[in-house]
Design goal:
Elements: H1 2-26, H2 32-44, H3 51-57, H4 60-88, H5 94-116, H6 118-135, H7 143-146, E1 153-159, E2 169-170, H8 171-174, E3 182-187, E4 194-195, E5 202-203, E6 208-214, H9 215-222, H10 228-256
Antiparallel strand pairs: 1-6, 2-5, 3-4, 3-6
């Protein structure tokens, strides 16, 4: 029974550690989903090789977080396997094994609820944020709040294909601002990252652009081809954005009066 409790404790501690690491990585500028993926990959030693992994290794704070996770993860996995063996292999009686299984299953059910609970997530995030701000030198900044990542607003990355409507055009020619989309940066192989590009900046095939705006516009933009239909879709979303701004201006006028 002690081994079963120890196993549940190790699993809970592992989940907490990866959650802390994910929040810390998110504070360095990674998206929440990317931060969680990288934290779990490092803790379990999965070793996924992606462009995000390269960016993490080039960032001193992210590299330190991942390095710490890898060290803790090795110890945690070994301890969990040892507790698993003590729980189900060594006990002679069936009753002891069933008690151990019941404790593990009940503990995992509680842990699963806690992971899925928005209330627990908010409370845990606040506590972790305070700890990170007090005991570390990480710049604790809520990027989701700063960029207002709600009401269907998102930040996304898009790799530009050869036949994309975006390819071989400057930002002035694309007029993405009129669709409610802002290009935050351009990542091009063999060149330094271009943040806050000017209107004269050209989008080339294989560029990875970071964009901010409405998710529904992103979906259309990703699938927009370099033909007449692409131009028609662009005009359609420009019109929608103009109507949205006009409606917002009328609301602001009513509030001012």
């Amino acid at each position: 029974m002690i081994a079963a409790v120890t196993l549940f404790f190790i699993i809970t501690l592992s989940a907490l550690i990866t959650r802390i690491a994910a929040i810390a990585l998110a504070h360095t500028g990674l998206s929440t989903q990317s931060a969680r993926f990288q934290a779990r990959s490092a803790y379990t030693g999965a070793g996924f090789t992606t462009s995000e992994s390269e960016k993490i290794m080039q960032h001193p704070v992210r590299r330190k977080i991942i390095y710490t996770l890898m060290l803790i993860g090795n110890a945690g996995i070994v301890t969990a396997m040892s507790s698993l063996i003590l729980t189900f292999v060594l006990p002679d009686s069936l009753t002891s094994k069933l008690y151990g299984l019941l404790i593990v299953l009940a503990g995992l059910a509680v842990l699963w609820w806690a992971i899925r609970s928005a209330w627990v997530d908010r409370g845990l995030s606040k506590i972790i944020n305070k700890m990170l701000k007090r005991y570390t030198e990480i710049n604790v900044q809520d990027y989701a709040a700063v960029l207002h990542l709600q009401d269907n607003y998102h930040i996304s990355e898009l790799r530009v294909e050869e036949d994309s409507w975006l390819a071989n055009k400057t930002l002035i020619e694309l007029e993405l601002r009129k669709e409610g989309i802002t290009v935050l940066g351009i990542d091009r192989d063999g060149e330094d990252y271009l943040g806050s590009p000017s209107g004269a900046s050209k989008i080339l095939p294989d560029d990875v652009i970071t964009v901010y705006g409405k998710a529904e516009v992103f979906k259309n933009l990703y699938n927009r081809n370099r033909d007449l239909s692409g131009e028609m879709q662009h005009k359609e979303y420009v019109k929608k954005e103009a109507e949205r701004k006009k409606e917002q201006a009328e609301k602001d006028k009513v509030k001012a009066d």
